[in-house]
């Protein structure tokens, strides 16, 4: 029960890493808001968590919208009384937009991957400051450190911005007892195309641990940063990539 009675919002929690984080948080005692633009899928995850004895509600949000962020945080506080943890997990890859090298694709990647983190962090911090602090975990990527031939520059730009923004936010909000850290996953489903055998083999060959990652392995790292065990950790970067960028 490492998050006993903590109130947590996880965005992009209808599937993938966000779902793994939401389920793990609930199992560790948190009261979780499963937030996603996919309403039906978010409702299903929340219902499943409740069926397993956890505490979860679903909320629909377009993370690029400031009014929707304000509504999400207001609903969370109205339901639970406060906000202790925010995981800015929602994000998209370059393959999610029509032309990631065009202006429209660039703007979409920046909006979902970068601007959403700014909005969530700023508004969550304003709320957390009223109740004595909290923890914000921003999901970046190893592509926030390095480029990649198979990636898209706009994606790397968005994730690199999350990395540096997290450090600046940690400095700004530290005096309010709000910790802000980033997590940098490596290659794993669902962000890596599970149907492309050649791509999977290439990434496995370049990973010292010799396999792809699992969403739950990221979730455990996020759990640590969200918990009071990391009470003196802020502005840090946690890389979870099987050693990919260590070489």
| Sheet with the most strands: spatial strand order | 3-2-1-4-5-6-7
Q: Averaging pLDDT over every residue, what do you get?
A: 94
- Overall number of strands: 7
Report on the biggest sheet. 7 strands, parallel
% residues in beta strands: 15-25%
**Helical content (DSSP H or I, runs of 4+):** 40-55%
Q: Topology as H/E string?
A: EHEHEHEHEHEHHE
Number of helices, where a helix is a run of at least 4 consecutive DSSP H or I residues? 7
State Rg.
Answer: 17 Å
> What structural class is derived from the secondary structure elements?
alpha/beta
> Which consecutive residue ranges, at least 5 long each, have pLDDT under 50?
none
The geometry reads as: globular
The end-to-end span amounts to: 36 Å
Question: What's the gist of this structure?
Answer:
This protein has 247 residues and is an alpha/beta fold.
Q: Topology of this structure?
A:
Elements lengths: L6 E5 L4 H12 L3 E6 L2 H13 L3 E6 L5 H15 L4 E4 L14 H26 L5 E6 L13 H21 L4 E8 L11 H9 L9 H12 L10 E4 L7
């Amino acid at each position: 029960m490492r998050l006993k009675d903590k109130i947590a919002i996880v965005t992009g929690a209808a599937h993938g890493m966000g779902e793994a984080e939401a389920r793990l948080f609930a199992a560790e005692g948190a009261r979780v808001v499963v937030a996603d633009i996919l309403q039906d899928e978010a409702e299903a995850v929340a219902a499943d968590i409740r069926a397993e004895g956890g505490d979860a509600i679903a909320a629909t949000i377009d993370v690029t919208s400031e009014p929707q962020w304000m509504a999400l945080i207001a609903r969370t506080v109205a339901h639970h009384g406060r906000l202790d943890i925010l995981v800015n997990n929602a994000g998209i890859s370059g393959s999610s937009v029509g032309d990631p090298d065009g202006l429209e694709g660039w703007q979409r990647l920046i909006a979902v991957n970068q601007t959403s983190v700014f909005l969530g962090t700023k508004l969550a911090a304003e709320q957390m400051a009223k109740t004595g602090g909290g923890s914000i975990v921003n999901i970046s990527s190893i592509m926030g450190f390095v480029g990649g031939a198979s990636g898209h520059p706009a994606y790397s730009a968005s994730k690199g911005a999350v990395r540096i923004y997290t450090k600046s936010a940690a400095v700004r909000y530290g005096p309010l007892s709000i910790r802000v850290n980033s997590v940098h996953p490596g290659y794993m489903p669902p962000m890596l195309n599970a149907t492309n055998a050649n791509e999977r083999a290439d990434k496995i060959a370049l990973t010292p641990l010799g396999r792809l990652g699992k969403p739950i392995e990221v979730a455990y790292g996020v759990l640590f940063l969200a918990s009071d065990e990391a009470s003196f950790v802020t502005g840090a970067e946690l890389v979870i990539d099987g050693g990919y960028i260590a070489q």
